[in-house]
Amino acid sequence: MSAGTTAQTAEKRPGRIDAVPVRHPWRWVAVAFIAVLVAMVVHSFVTNPRWDWASTFEFLFRPPIIEGLIKGTILGTVIAMIIGVGLGVLLAVLRLSKNPVLKYASAGFTWFFRAIPRYVLLTILGVGLIYLYPTIDIGIPFGQQISHWLGLGWDMTWWHIDMRNVSSGIGIGALGLGLSESAYMAEIARAGIVSVDDGQTEAAEALGMSHRKTMRRIVLPQAMRVIVPPTGNEFIAMIKDTSLLAAIPVGMELFYQATIIANRTYKVMSAYVAATIWYLVVCSVLMFLQSLLEKRFGRGFSNGDDELNPRARRLLQKTGEH
């Protein structure tokens, strides 16, 4: 390119535009309105003696509250989500199978547990299960009848479970929540998997990758971008749904312990506010972790420069494409 052509191109380029920013007066009106509302709420918290903050902070660190928070709420949530996520991913893979038996069995499981309210499910597990099945025998179906018919001394049963030992407590509660959660996670995982274009799977298989390797290295890393946000929401919702363990009943639960303290001390709101504060703390931590996971699995899909990682930003600066 000659010097004359370069000079002509430079002359054609527009100069700096001194644009006047668009003014948004109603935004400042909204800010003022919100500030007044916040001031009113803070004023109510400070001046209303019925909040009884001294009792609230005293209840906040009582051993039963802490025990309920750790064992009932956090541990119950972790166990339920491990069951829910693991079983949900398996159900999603089965739902996408070309085998009609696996496909419809997964669909039937998902339909059943999505249709039952969690409180009803926990009540049935905690109360109805021990009534219907005092013991559960694991072995060959109709083994006892076949053994009696053939005159054998072996009833073909390998394992007996006494439901009186397992129908109460955090274990059966977490199992109920996990089964219910797996139905929702199955739909979330299925949506994430089908969001990946089939062409990528076909290209990976054309390169000689096995189906398992294609899922692990091609499909699931991209599907996580779709799966992580709703999974984080489900995790946070599970924290709150552990209060439904009272249907089992499970005494080692945060809200249950708060209710007991409220009944004993007659300071109902202070006990409930203490439980609420712990729910807010735990859920806030989970929301922060969720945002970190979303940024990690959303790399390369954002259109904003702020979301570019430093290495990509330096590369773009060198090539001058931004």
Shape summary: flat
**Span between termini:** 23 Å
Strand content: under 5%
Structure summary, number of beta strands: 2
Helix content: over 70%
Q: Note poorly predicted spans.
A: none
Largest sheet: 2 strands, antiparallel
Tell me the strand order in the biggest sheet.
Answer: 1-2
Question: Structural class per helix/strand content?
Answer: mainly alpha
- Any idea what the radius of gyration is? 29 Å
Number of helices: 14
Mean pLDDT across every amino acid position: 83
H/E topology pattern? HHHHHHEHEHHHHHHH
Could you walk me through the main structural features you see in this protein, from its secondary elements to its overall organization?
22% of the residues are buried. The longest helix is centred in the N-terminal third of the chain and has 33 residues, at 63-95. α3 packs across α13 (268-297), α6 (118-132) crosses α9 and α12 runs antiparallel to α13. The model has no long low-confidence stretch (mean pLDDT 83). This protein has helices spanning 3-12, 25-47, 53-60, 63-95, 100-115, 118-132, 143-150, 163-166, 170-194, 198-206, 211-241, 254-265, 268-297, 310-319, and strands spanning 135-139, 157-162. 73% of the residues lie in helices and 3% in strands. Strands 1-2 form a two-stranded antiparallel ribbon. With 322 residues, the protein is mainly α.
Short structural summary:
Helix content is 73%, strand content 3%. It contains 14 helices and two strands. The longest helix has 33 residues.
